[in-house]
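It is worth pausing here to work through a concrete case rather than discussing structure prediction in the abstract. The textbook approach is simple: state the sequence, then state the predicted structure, then interpret. We follow exactly that order.
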Amino acid sequence: MQISEAVEVVGLSAKTIRYYEAEGVIPEARRLPNGYRVYDDRDLRRLRTVAAARALDLSLDDIRELIELASNGHRPCPRLRTVAEQRRDLVRQAINDLVALEERLTETIERSRQVDENRSLEPSTICPVLEAANERNG
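Step two, the predicted structure:
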């Protein structure tokens, strides 16, 4: 099967497939005499696996490791579980950080509504809301 057909089957672009090949995530494809890449069922299975792993936001290094484990006759699922747990923990921390940021932004919006726009500022003051926020966080 040529790359144009593989694209339809695995749902990755030809550019992405060539990139994975160049990065060593998948082996170099066999070539026809005209230079076209050809993929067999094993290649397609590997590409589907890579696509599923990327959908979980796993790194190419992690994916290479999982594929290497399988290629060497080992079950990669225990390693996948460890990598997925680590990734999940990072996502949870990012969510917590974003929630905290949302709260700070909401507080800033509320405080900015309370600023008396008619009151004159000290010459060195840029924004009293930001200065007050800096004092609270400092």
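Step three, interpretation. The longest helix spans residues 77-113. The chain has six helices and two strands.
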